[in-house]
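JOB MANIFEST
job_type = single_chain_structure
chain_count = 1
residues = 408
[input]
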Amino acid sequence: MSEVPLKLGSVFAASVVFLSVPVTAQTVPTPAAQVPAVRNQRGGFPMPALPAVFETSQQKVRVSLVAQGLDRPWSLLILPNGDMLVSMRYSQQIRAIRKGILDPNPVAGLPPMRLMFDIAAHPKFAENRWIYFSYSKPGTGRTPIVLARGRYEGSSLVNVQDLYVSDPVTAGASRMAFAPDGSIYMTVSGAAGRVAATGGEPALDPRKPDTAHGKVIRLRDDGSAPPDNPFVGRPGARPEIYTVGHRDHFGIAPHPTTGQMFHVELGPYGGDKVNILKAGADYGWPDYSYGRNNDSSPIANPNVPGIEPALLVWLPAITPSGLLFYTGEKFPAWKGNLMVGSVVRGRVRGASGVERVVFNDKMWEIQRESFLTELKQRIRDIRQGSDGLIYLLTEEVNGAVLKIEPAD
């Protein structure tokens, strides 16, 4: 969603436990002129002193700093040995954190690019050392989004090759995840909606399968389209497309039991949602939304035949980014819960945190909680480590990796 600050409020469930400020008759609100300036429309709030303990609805958690000094990072990858790789969208780098130490030098071997997006390890990484990454090609105007891979050698990627190159699309961002069958799903932004043909370039429509714009694509690990993709063999359709009609969609992960791919998508002004991806399904953008346009004008509701409904919706929007189903043992009360990072809630700068959603065995939502809102950091990614702990990536100029562990 657009992150223009508006005068909207929200109620959060979590509360910090190491600091309290008594409210008395003498408490006077800080005049607006004395509020510290922060970056326009973005975060910019200082990180609170860490480690610190915070309350959630079921237990206390301790948040500590793993590494800091990352310029607006995008994606966090935790390797089997606990080392981490962090992608940086604007500086076009991958940075390594080894044994808790941020390497001052970026990982070598990346190709020239316009923007850096997601990173993922091959399911057989222990054998092949393959790291997959997505990026947009250099250039102005529309440029293709690429799925590439290279062999990770600790300080560099070697034998880097482009596996898949889309048609030229509008620049945005992308997420990807491997499914249990070994295929890889990758999102391609459609936030620009329908884009008219100009200067010889074709029109782009998120709901038409002739472009990767506004789609989830599904590929084999060599970058080719699986023969069972829904648009294979259809004239004029791109065979890599799996679903159509998406806006910005910055989280994707398989369900740990069913293997179904779950997916978070940003509405324009409200209406962020979780989707279960179904082959060939149309999710409606830009004609349908649970929210409104960025200027608050109405959009048709997607509860119509032919448009795949959302599993759940956020109103006000949270700007979701990153998604996981918790499967570890360190937080037994959270096992099976869906976790989503929140960049900004209700267009209120500094209103961010982690969203936790509980489902029953029918995948009906039964509980929802926002926590770690006191951090006031833009949560851009959320991952589970091999140690069963949860790690967050903050998208700030001085971005950080944070570790969440039980404090009880």
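[summary]
Residues 1-40 have pLDDT under 50 and may be disordered.
Residues 37 and 175 are 32 Å apart (CA to CA).
exit_status = 0
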